What we know:
By secondary structure, this protein is mainly α.
Amino acid sequence: MMLRVKDDSVAEIDGPRNQTSMAYEIIRTDILLGRHTPDKKLKIQDLAEELGVSPGAVREALSRLVPEELVVSRDQRGFLVAPLSPADLIDLTDLRCEIEALALRRSVERGDVNWEAGILAAEYKLRNKPIVADGEDPRRKWAQNHAQFHSALVSACGNRRLFSLHGQLYEQSERYRGLLFHLETDRDVTVEHQEIMQYALTRDADSLVRATVHHLRKTTELIIANFGRKEPAKHKK
């Protein structure tokens, strides 16, 4: 986890390039996890003071986030967190399911024992309570483990661009999935992940794709059903 720099002298030693990279990683993660909410105005000076970096580093970091569609730049209004909408989520989910299916089928065909071991290890980490440092948000660690699991499933697809596109769509989806963290639900995602893992290990491509697509669309249905909820219920433990 990237730590925020609070001491100005440390930020100066790091140099402008390191300042920009640090600001980019922190702001990006905070958007994905919902700390910076949709349509929020991102004030450069406030972020610079919070992160202990120069305003120029923040401005460059925000500019890097624009093509990733996490931040939008508006004339006379500066930078804003990109908005979310049910229509966009549906489009995103449809495309993600298509890419996921292709990447999964290719991985089943090409995956070796190392691919299988990677899936097993990732599912084990995801299933167990994450180990977090003092002051670290456990949601952040769970989100990291979740990303690793879904990445491991398609890691043997054998196409760099396909694997990269899969990752980009996953991260776009993360902004929406983060809305579910506090929702009360009877859904057992652990069982869903275990089912997906088993289909991958038995090389049942059709069932793997079917279970994964259902998993993704179920998340989308829950988000849309609760979209715009201002006071979400506490999440069941």
